[in-house]
Protein 1
Amino acid sequence: MVAGGSLGGLRTVEQLRAHGYTGSMRIVGDERHLPCNRPPSSKGVLSSTASLSETLPESTFRQRTSTADAQRSLGTKTFCSNLADRVVELDKGETVAHHGLVVATGLFARRLDTCTPAAGRFVIRTIDDSLVLRARLRPGIRAVIVGAGFIGCEIAAAATALGCQVTIVEGSSGPMENSIGRKLSDTMKPLMEDYGGEFRTGRVVGLLTALDQRCVGFTLDDGSQLAADVVVESIGSLPNVEWLDGNNLDLTDGGLCDDSMRVRGATRAVAVGDIARFPDQVLGGDARRVEHWATAGDTAKIAAATLVADLAGQASPAAVTPTPSFWTELCEVRLVGVGSPGAATSVRELEGDLGHPARGVALGYFREELLAAVVTVTLPSNRQLHYRGLVATARELASNLPAFQPNPTRKREDQ
Amino acid sequence: MKVYVDRNLCDNHGQCAISAPAVFRINSEGILEYEDDVDGSLRNDVEDAIDVCPVQAIFIRDDE
């Protein structure tokens, strides 16, 4: 039984077959489409003019013949579960008994904490969300993006390119600061401003303003007013774990796993993708969720091997910690990262000069004297692969370091 | 086994070169080069490369 019909669920059923599982599989997911590739939702889809029927075939993942016999229930939610008895109840009342469970229900977009009408306020989590927002991004409209993480910045860049007047409100000091650190954030900010985005950093949203049952802007914490034709809330995501309540699991921030992706406190249950909070055997410290696209595939491989072994009562394969990797493209600059920039105690250029990002830069993120991550800026991928190798090697050494304690999960926008 | 990369989609991310270095490599200009006629024993590696491609540009064309 696979709960979650997006990339994590898809990759896990593929990997279950690849690891020799021949039994039946049931995939339940609340989206109405077959699994789509999400990154274009905040990138190319926003900038294109293609309709849903034109976009879907391009975005839909190819189905492997090995998983053709899996039973798929689209547009269906897992409602509640009893993991001890191995049953999951679906929102339409059906009860599904199973021998093994894959937790892949992913995240949902956080919303501003307000009772203001939802009209005029948007999030992007699915391709449908993307098309709804795109229809509103007309030249000259005032678009306010709340939250300058990767998704917020990508939406801001797309909206700017479409001719919108874009303002970005961010509680920290600049774009993507929580992910890539202050130094690179300070480099990206003027680039994005040159493209027409206006930042209001160190500010949080106060009261929203409604007119005729629509959100038309808000007040910031410094008392200033922002009028908006479109408000995009890109303030992070929260794990879809409610259906797991009542099973005595640790669900404080996604589902807590061991280092083989088993859900702690359950048997024959694994978690994959950005809902899974798993330990980093290299950096040590607290288990954490990794919200990158690549995490779905990386964790699916580990989880499938674990579940196949557990179902057969065999010893599970040696645990491995995937190397995090991510990318984004903003204002003709491609950032590619590998490792955990958040673990760094210092940052310095390994190649190039941040004063000239267009010429190509590699930024090293060091934890003490060890390379914890590299982010490349407009470098060709052969250079990026070189740095990936360095980070992978450093990760082997990092297991001798004192454990890294990530910042406790904090809200990107105070309410 | 025939391997095909749609160059209209390929963005030279290079993730494939990590999964299947015997088939895909990034040259010194940062452009993908690949073998299009591949031994079937490499299927798992190529499938991994298909999976990790951010733009889903890699295809296997089995011999009819």
Protein 2
Amino acid sequence: MCLAIPALVTAVLADDMATVSLGGVVKTVSVALLDEVAVGDYVLLHVGYALHKISEEEAERTLAMMAEGGLLEAELDEIAGDAA
Amino acid sequence: MKYVEEFRDRALAEKLSAAIRAEADPARSYNFMEFCGGHTHAIFRYGVQDLVPGNVHFVHGPGCPVCILPIRRLDDAIELAERHGVILCSYGDMLRVPGSKRRSLLSVKAQGADVRMVYSTLDALDIARKNPDRQVVFLGIGFETTTPPTALAIRQAADEGLTNFSVFCNHVLTPAAIRHILDAPDIDPEEAVHLDGFLGPSHVSTVIGSRPYEFLSETYRKPVVIAGFEPLDVLQSVLMLIRQVNEGRVEVENQYARVVTREGNTKAQDLVDEIFELRPAFEWRGLGMVARSALAIRPAYAPFDAEARFDLSEKTSREVKSCECPAILRGVKKPKDCKLFGNVCTPDNPMGSCMVSSEGSCAAYWTYRRAETLAEMAKDKAMAEQAA
């Protein structure tokens, strides 16, 4: 549960919430810990909250590392299982 | 170099490995503690130990949130679910950790207690909204990354006037635990683990920034490099630490500068300050009582504090006999030094917390180093028998 996963913000919603897309999973998350978030931003997502904004390059680099390490699938399962 | 094929960028891994070999002084040894379980996992998954010379050692620290929760607090959570009949919400890993008498949250759930795995505090809040006639308690665990989400949930519950939601708060602080480990040799010489530097946690640092580690260089004269989780990040950070040691420099350096700043996420820090206050001391599995190392919910938010709302009994909690998790969490012992490893204690049947979470040292050895560890154990046993 230490890992945070990069996600792309696809819609900004009311009450500090946003929709993000990650590996085909769409999820509603809280962006209340960040000052300003816009569609197209990448964020580090941890236990349902965006912790930090990151660059697209960093997001891609982290996602590739997690996929290679077999970590992405487990994280996505957890998130998808919860979304179901 | 048997693991180097695993790397996406093999050329860079080989280059970093070669630089480490060239710069590490064969006449000395380098002991670096990786505090965070995420690093422990990356080191094992990618065989980073095999890419550095034999005199560079990784000492696994206590940075796994599931591993360090003391058994008494877990027993309290079980009591909340069983005796107080609450809906107890927790992150997944926590459910399988054995408490006293080998009972886990999962086993009491099987016996009828209402224990639910959640991915986020947002889900716990939702459960409270949908069950207004039931008390819902979120078991809050973790370091500085999971604390702001818990703080937000409490503030959200207060804003909405939810009267059936509370948090059993067990949030802990990274810098205080590092300080405790460095003070340990002064308290008990047998606990002396010589450390030449630290790999600082990455995601924790996105929240708290690099500044809270500056006491390590200023007071304890220990180099720190805040390291990303990618294996190449770990290798680069090791090289940066070796350079500091060789040059006699003692600094907080930030290898993960593409994400971590000195200040961190001040919005998250302010929120944590609003909801929580420091506990004078808190018990950690392995470390014992650690001063000013954990957070409690401020009295202003007492209605959302499970410890204030529910009367928890005084209990005598017992660790599993022979389980070496406490010493392993202090970096004093390794999984091979635990008699239970691999025979009675496995990820399917864990006896201690270090085998439960994939970020725990024992689980990492089991997954990636099982054969070598069991062989070392057999050798140690044969030598001990011969000596006797």
